[in-house]
């Protein structure tokens, strides 16, 4: 419209200039001024449009889908506008917007605990889980085999337990000029119903503190959607993570870790654990296949793994040196050196399958020999067995599950564990055995579900013996068990979602031990476990020699709530 008006004005000027040169000069000046005003208005309009587009971009990102956590191609942050492959400049002022139009620590819409950082994101997460329960170790008559009766309360006992409770932050930061992101996670476990401190019970003694900063899965690393991620720190091993989806009872009484990955029973889960001072690789998914592989150096100055690993507070595999074994006091109750863990999985729609392997080198179990002989062996045979009882252990498992459209999920695992000791130690080798796990889950409504599981530990190659099962005597003065150590665990749970984050659950479980077996209830992440020990020497330590009664039938019922965020 303005251009049209200026055109008309110019025609009028052409007429006027034939009769009034002076007037024409003045009109030229007016037209020049009008043209300058028009150009200024055009520039302002462009600036306003650019500002409006920037504000619209900020508003639109508040409802955008979550950004890719790793990285985007061409060396830019996921979701950022393309820049021809050049690094995106990052503004560090807390008052500025970054290249994506986000302010520093600006809340990410749709995710209540995720915030933007320049070139990245940071997310808080956690789980709070507390339960009330009752358990008993003698619901069926206990065969003492001539041993003394248990000391203290071996029957029903109420308890309040904190289960798998933790807090953490994780995030990523784009690295300018690189096709990858810096990744980090900081995680700590804590007790809601118990006071943090060193744990000393009649089952074990530990120098680690649940509640210390970042005592759980914590790492830094580099990652990209093209080649995967490399991380360093401490983490649940790939062997453990590979079948986590098979365990709807995680942290509950019927957690499958009572038997699966648990070579000898009791509270420790040798092949379902967190590995410290580790480095690992996580591949991207390629045609549904995904690989994870980890290596953890032993960091042990002694070739028999009897020292605490350099930089650690407990023996490898758990417990302090004075816990779990007789003299000499050392890391001789399952401490190991180098460890490797890996799994390969395949996912196709509702189907998932995995194969996993883990190996621990130079696993020291010399305390089994001292318990068989009652003292440090002095005979030639005993000394030989003592020296030989440092050997590698490994585990292999395969598993598959399927999610049906009816809301039904079924899955199963077959596991083989082995300890590589000489033939003369086979009689006490309880670590070589197979195991199975099967479960079914059914969604009843959008908020209600039921779950059933069954685990079976096959009879092991041998057994070193416990308080009421060491009934055999050799010419060399050793006692050991008759090797009847198969066991079963059955469990069931009902769960109801009270909100998207809060779940109420009720679980019942029972472990049926063979006459030489001593599997418990609660292994694998609970604050309170129910094991084979009585109250004798309940202050812990190697000199307490608490009584462990094999062949128990342990039953428990638990109800609690879990809030995940």
Q: What is this structure, in a nutshell?
A:
This protein has 565 residues and is mainly β. It has helices spanning 2-16, 21-61, 238-241, 366-373, 380-388; strands at residues 114-117, 120-136, 157-162, 166-174, 181-189, 198-200, 205-209, 218-224, 228-236, 274-282, 289-296, 339-348, 351-364, 390-403, 408-419, 433-443, 448-457, 472-473, 479-480, 487-497, 502-513, 553-564. It has two domains: 2-61; 123-161 and 236-564, Porin.
Task: Indicate the topology.
Blueprint: H1 2-16, H2 21-61, E1 114-117, E2 120-136, E3 157-162, E4 166-174, E5 181-189, E6 198-200, E7 205-209, E8 218-224, E9 228-236, H3 238-241, E10 274-282, E11 289-296, E12 339-348, E13 351-364, H4 366-373, H5 380-388, E14 390-403, E15 408-419, E16 433-443, E17 448-457, E18 472-473, E19 479-480, E20 487-497, E21 502-513, E22 553-564
Antiparallel strand pairs: 1-2, 2-3, 2-4, 2-22, 4-5, 5-8, 6-7, 8-9, 9-10, 10-11, 11-12, 12-13, 13-14, 14-15, 15-16, 16-17, 17-20, 18-19, 20-21, 21-22
Structure, explained:
The protein contains 5 helices and 22 strands. The protein has helices at 2-16, 21-61, 238-241, 366-373, 380-388; strands at residues 114-117, 120-136, 157-162, 166-174, 181-189, 198-200, 205-209, 218-224, 228-236, 274-282, 289-296, 339-348, 351-364, 390-403, 408-419, 433-443, 448-457, 472-473, 479-480, 487-497, 502-513, 553-564. The strands form 3 sheets. A 16-stranded antiparallel beta barrel has the order 2-4-5-8-9-10-11-12-13-14-15-16-17-20-21-22. A two-stranded antiparallel ribbon has the order 6-7. Strands 18-19 form a two-stranded antiparallel ribbon.
């Amino acid at each position: 419209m303005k251009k049209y008006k200026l055109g008309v004005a110019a025609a009028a000027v052409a007429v006027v200039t034939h009769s009034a040169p002076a007037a024409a000069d003045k009109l030229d000046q007016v037209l020049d001024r009008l043209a300058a005003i028009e150009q200024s208005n055009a520039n302002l309009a462009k600036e306003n449009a650019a500002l409006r587009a920037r504000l619209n971009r900020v508003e639109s990102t508040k409802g955008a889908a979550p950004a890719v956590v790793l990285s985007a191609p061409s060396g830019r942050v996921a979701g950022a506008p393309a820049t021809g492959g050049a690094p995106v400049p990052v503004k560090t002022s807390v008052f500025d917007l970054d290249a994506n139009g986000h302010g520093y620590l600006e809340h990410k819409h749709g995710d209540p605990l995720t915030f933007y950082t320049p070139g990245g994101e940071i997310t808080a997460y956690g789980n709070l889980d507390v339960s009330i329960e009752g358990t008993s170790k003698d619901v069926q008559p206990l065969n003492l085999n001539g041993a003394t009766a248990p000391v203290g309360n071996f029957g029903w006992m109420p308890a309040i337990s904190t289960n798998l409770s933790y807090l953490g932050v994780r995030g990523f930061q784009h690295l300018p000029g690189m096709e990858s992101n810096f990744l980090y996670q900081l995680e700590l476990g804590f007790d809601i119903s118990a006071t943090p401190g060193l744990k000393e019970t009649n089952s074990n003694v530990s120098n680690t503190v649940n509640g210390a900063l970042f005592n759980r899965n914590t790492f830094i690393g580099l990652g990209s959607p093209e080649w995967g991620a490399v991380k360093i720190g401490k983490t649940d091993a790939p062997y453990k993570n590979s079948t986590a989806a098979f365990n709807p009872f995680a942290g509950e009484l019927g957690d499958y870790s009572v038997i699966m990955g648990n070579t000898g029973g009791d509270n420790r889960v040798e092949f379902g654990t967190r590995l410290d001072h580790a480095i690992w690789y996580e591949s991207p998914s390629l045609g549904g296949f995904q690989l994870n592989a980890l290596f953890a150096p032993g960091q042990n100055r002694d070739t028999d793994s009897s020292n605490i690993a350099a930089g650690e507070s407990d023996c490898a595999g758990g417990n302090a040196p004075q816990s779990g074994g007789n003299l000499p006091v050392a890391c001789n109750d399952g401490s190991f050196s180098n460890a490797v863990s890996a799994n390969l999985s395949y996912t196709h729609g509702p189907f998932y399958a995995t194969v996993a392997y883990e190996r621990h080198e130079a696993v020291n179990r010399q305390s089994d020999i001292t318990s068989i002989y009652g003292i440090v062996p002095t005979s030639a045979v005993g000394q030989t067995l003592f020296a030989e009882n440092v050997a590698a252990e490994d585990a292999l498992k395969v598993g598959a599950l399927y999610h049906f459209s009816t809301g039904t999920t079924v899955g199963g695992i077959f596991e083989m564990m082995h300890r590589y000791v000489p033939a003369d130690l086979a009689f006490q080798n309880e670590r070589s055995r197979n195991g199975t796990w099967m479960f079914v889950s059914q969604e009843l409504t959008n908020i209600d579900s039921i779950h059933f599981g069954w685990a079976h530990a096959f009879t092991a190659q041998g057994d070193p013996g416990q308080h009421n099962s060491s009934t055999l005597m050799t010419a060399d003065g050793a006692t050991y068990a008759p090797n009847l150590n198969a066991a079963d665990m059955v469990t069931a749970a009902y769960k109801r979602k009270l909100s998207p984050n809060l779940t109420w659950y009720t679980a019942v479980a029972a472990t049926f031990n063979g006459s030489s077996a001593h599997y418990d209830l609660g292994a694998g992440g609970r604050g309170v476990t129910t094991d084979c020990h009585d109250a004798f020497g309940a202050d812990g330590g190697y000199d307490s020699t608490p009584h462990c009664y094999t062949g128990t039938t342990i039953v428990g019922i638990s109800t609690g709530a879990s809030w995940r965020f």
